[in-house]
Amino acid sequence: MTVKQNDLTIRPITGREELDLFSRLPYVLNEELADDLAAGRRRPQWMWVALRGDHLLARAAWWGQTGDDTPSLLDIFDIDDSSADRNRADIGVRLLQTAKAEVVPAGARPPEYIRMVPSDWREVGMTKRLVEDRMVALEQTGARLLVERLRLEWRPGTPIPEPSGRLAFRPVHDTEELLSLMTLVLDGTLDSHSRDDLTRMSAREAAVRHYEDELAHYRSPRDWWRIATLPDGEPVGFVTPARNDYNPVIGYLAVLPAHRGNGYIDDILAEGTRILSAQDVPRIRAATDLGNTPMAKAFQRAGYVNFERTINMTWN
After folding, report:
1. Exposure pattern of 272-284 as b/e (b: 16+ CB <10 Å)?
2. Radius of gyration of the CA atoms of the chain, in A
3. Statement to judge: residues 122 and 244 lie in one domain
């Protein structure tokens, strides 16, 4: 579909041959686009541009799991910040509205928007303006800020604490055991995505959704996942060290409500880090909400570095 609005053309790219055109606006994900297209995580009909002649003024792209018919994230939205056009933000809004109407099935909730930003983005005037310009444009399409998150990284050579002996670790018995524990940890959760889910569904439904949308797609062995227990076998928490499509990750880390406040988070995180580091990985990635102070401090104690943040916005 191509839409003409005065001298503006809004359309999806035709295919891989237009990746150079789509990549004229800088962003960290540009280097992943070719591989994502080849793997089916992106499709040309999910990658839209706004053009004046051959000048790229704005772009938007969605991402999904390989094989999915609909995308699960809007993770690229850019405006030509060098343009002197005072209506450049409006061009971004028009692009989003046009593309969203074609990409998102009628009646469906639009996929969440996620933007990677520098950790100090509020402290650098130009960066702050660029991030906020995009947020304002998204808000004009009905989006709202859900959460700001820390992106974290453990690097080889960073010390891993020796096991304290307070907890034992064993593999997950089966999917049902993990889902049951995931349901329990949602009681009192500080995670904004989980809290948002709980406004629309039960804890069990939220756990199943998280499992099916994320954990089920990991490319690594499930016998890496660990249940943390007391010496008598009582579960305390769990961790799912894994590999996603891009990096080794600490996918899900949690302590059961009855055992919070005892410092077990450090033992569980160390175990997950230990499992991945034994695979000779170049890095380990993780993320947590900016406002989830206990989790953020646990990663800091474990030597994880906050190298970036994300802005996450959603539509009701």
Report:
1. bbbbbbeeebeeb
2. 21
3. no
Can you tell me which residue has the tokens 């900016």? 290
What average pLDDT does the segment 244-255 reach?
96
Q: Based on the fold, state whether residues 249 and 302 are members of the same structural domain.
A: yes
Asked if pLDDT for residue 85 goes beyond 70, the answer is no
- Residue 15 resides in a domain: yes
Does residue 146 lie in a domain region? no
DSSP class of 172: -
Band of the pLDDT at 3, cuts 50, 70, 90?
Answer: confident
Q: Can you count the helices (H) and strands (E) in the chain?
A: 9, 13
The pLDDT of 59-87, averaged and rounded, is 90
Residue whose C-alpha is closest to residue 60's, from 52, 175, 73:
73
**Residue 102, pLDDT above cutoff 90:** yes
CB atoms within 10 A of CB 83: 15
Q: Give me the residue label for tokens 């002649």.
A: 53
